[in-house]
Each structure stands twice: as structure tokens, then as C-alpha cells.
Structure prediction request, 151 residues.
Amino acid sequence: MGKTYHALWVHLVWSTKHRAPLIVPELKYKLYDKMREIAKEKGFYLDFVNGVEDHVHLLVGLKPSDSIPNIVRNLKGITHDWVRDTYASDEYFHWQDGYAAISVSPDRVPTVRGYIKKQERHHQKDSFKTEWDFFKQQAAVYQDMASGLCP
Prediction:
């Protein structure tokens, strides 16, 4: 085997500061397009993105050289500045400090993609706390005490 092969996937989740409902319908898909643009510019693969008013879910395919903190820093930092510069409003747009990064087995990619696609419907019946409790039950989730993601 003379080449390097990889199948590295991660499900990323983060919210707006204080879970404020800042991802309004007028912003939502423009924000997701901006995230895709950033991914393309920075050279990583953003497979799918969706969410609701107070948080986003992303499915990212990684290269062995990719750094999850670097990807998150770029997506959160650039979109934060872009929203503030493009959509100046009464609401101050800010992401929370932390994030969740959950590994995804290649055979589960279609399932996770489908889960992310159905976020609006999912959150009509389940809160983020219920969703997070489910993640903690399904995987060995470790908390960085400084991250502030966990409710």
C-alpha cells in the first residue's frame, strides 16, 4: 500500500453565547454558506451543516493533518466577525467559548448526516439538554471544564 488513506469524521456542535436565539431565519442559510466558504478556503471538508436558533451541528471530514481546534477556531472566529460586520443589529452575535467534537465511524456518516439534516424537526420536541444527555449516553464524552459546552 504505497499511498495514505484515511476516513476520519467528526460531528461538531456549538451554541450561541448563553444559547441566545440569534440564528434567525434571515441569517441561517447565509451563515451556513459562509461556513462552507471558510471550509473551502481553509482546505477542510464540511460535509453538512444545520441547526436551530441557538446552536449548530456540523459533519466534517478530516485529513490526518487537520486540527479540530483549528477548524473550530476558524469557523467560529470568521463567522463571528462576518455576522457582526454584515448584519449589524440590536443583538450582539457571539458564539459560546466551547464546543463538542464527537468522532463518527465511517459507516455511521449517513446516519449522522440525516440527524443533522432533521434538526428543526428534532428540536420541536426535544431540548438541547435532552439532546446533549443523549450524546453523553451514546458515547464516551469527556468535558473540558473550561469549555462551558455542557448545560
